[in-house]
């Protein structure tokens, strides 16, 4: 949640993102430590071995190679999350543009319909008035001014 709010607020400092990722990893480790192996167990699954007995798979394999793989995996997960956030932002922008275009088209259609109705009313009015009005009487033409 912290990382998402930081990214949505425009944060992009790699050092801060690394710290947030480190905090997330610590929280995950703490959560797994408190819930133990019972957290993801389904009904009917066999009971897990207690951690004090020899576990079938160690929680973290020894050696620097495993830590390097974990770091690479975390980096890939971080990049995936960043890309998902970017994709979500692009989708939101596209939807906003589509909504704005749709509203503009709707407004233009309403204006066009109103103008067509007005033109129809004016045609009817001129046809009706043309039957009842006498032919227009124009004033006599004005002669051009005489030269001095």
Automatic annotation (TrEMBL):
Chain spans, region Disordered: 35-66
Listed name of the protein: CCD17 protein
Superkingdom of origin: Eukaryota
Biased composition (Pro residues): 47-61
Chain segments annotated as coiled-coil in the UniProt record: 66-118
Native organism: Herpetotheres cachinnans (Laughing falcon)
Record has Protein transport as a keyword: no
Gene: Ccdc17
Keywords assigned: Coiled coil
